[in-house]
């Protein structure tokens, strides 16, 4: 996969947001938190990922560049909340009441579990499958599982087995 370079000014904006949110958390929770490392290696349609034990936030460079301010306003607090939740409460549900508390009470940000960014530019190839009632798109990973005989997908509507129709981009 081709690497995407995040402009320095955007990296600085990300770090300003991280530091500002950490300061909010420190003030609210009366505890000083270390600054997490931030990398731009997240791939696919995922905007970001918090690596709890490594105290690291991985961000999707393409989605960041395409959605700069919304990404900073939504994804940075989302991922930082995962780190802080793990630090404060241990291994709890990823988007449970503790995480929602950090998002809403500490950061004053809506506790959305997923982003709403367009993923057209980062979406991988899909494969058309059909059942008795409709067409389905399977990811390359799902398609390869079918080819290897490791998985069989069933339509939730009609209960029919999904069969490969044609490939598309």
Write a short abstract of this structure:
Helix content is 40%, strand content 16%. It is built from 5 helices and 6 strands, in the order H-E-E-E-H-H-H-E-E-H-E.
Query: N-to-C SSE series?
Result: HEEEHHHEEHE
Q: Please tell me how large the radius of gyration is.
A: 19 Å
Question: How are the strands of the largest sheet arranged?
Answer: 1-3-2
Which percent range describes the beta-strand content?
Answer: 15-25%
What is the annotated CATH architecture of the largest domain?
2-Layer Sandwich
Mean pLDDT: 86
Summarize the topology:
Elements: H1 8-29, E1 37-39, E2 48-51, E3 56-59, H2 61-66, H3 68-89, H4 97-106, E4 126-130, E5 135-139, H5 140-147, E6 163-168
Parallel strand pairs: 1-3
Antiparallel strand pairs: 2-3, 4-5, 4-6
Protein name: Protein SprT
GO biological process, one term: response to stress
Main location: cytoplasm
Describe this structure in words.
The protein is of the alpha+beta class. The chain folds into two domains: 8-121, 2-Layer Sandwich (Zincin-like); 124-164, no CATH class. The chain has five helices and six strands, in the order αβββαααββαβ. The protein has helices at 8-29, 61-66, 68-89, 97-106, 140-147; strands spanning 37-39, 48-51, 56-59, 126-130, 135-139, 163-168. The strands form two sheets. It has a three-stranded mixed β-sheet with strand order 1-3-2. Strands 5-4-6 form a three-stranded antiparallel β-sheet. Helix 1 packs parallel to helix 3 (68-89) and helix 3 packs across helix 4. The two termini are 17 Å apart. The model has no long low-confidence stretch (mean pLDDT 86).
């Amino acid at each position: 996969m081709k690497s995407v370079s995040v402009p320095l000014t955007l990296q600085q904006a990300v770090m300003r947001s991280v530091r500002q949110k950490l300061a909010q958390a420190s003030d609210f929770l009366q505890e000083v938190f270390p600054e997490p490392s931030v990398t731009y290696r997240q791939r696919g349609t995922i905007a970001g990922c918090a690596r709890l034990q490594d105290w690291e936030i991985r961000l999707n460079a393409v989605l960041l560049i395409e959605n700069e301010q919304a990404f900073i306003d939504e994804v940075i607090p989302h991922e930082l909340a995962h780190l802080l939740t793990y630090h404060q409460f241990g291994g709890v549900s990823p988007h449970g009441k503790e995480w929602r508390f950090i998002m809403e009470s500490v950061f004053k940000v809506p506790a959305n579990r997923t982003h709403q960014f367009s993923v057209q530019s980062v979406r991988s190839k899909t494969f058309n499958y059909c059942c008795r009632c409709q067409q389905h798109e399977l990811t390359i990973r799902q398609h390869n599982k079918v080819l290897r005989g490791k998985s069989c997908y069933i339509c939730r509507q009609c209960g029919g087995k999904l069969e490969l129709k044609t490939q598309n981009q």
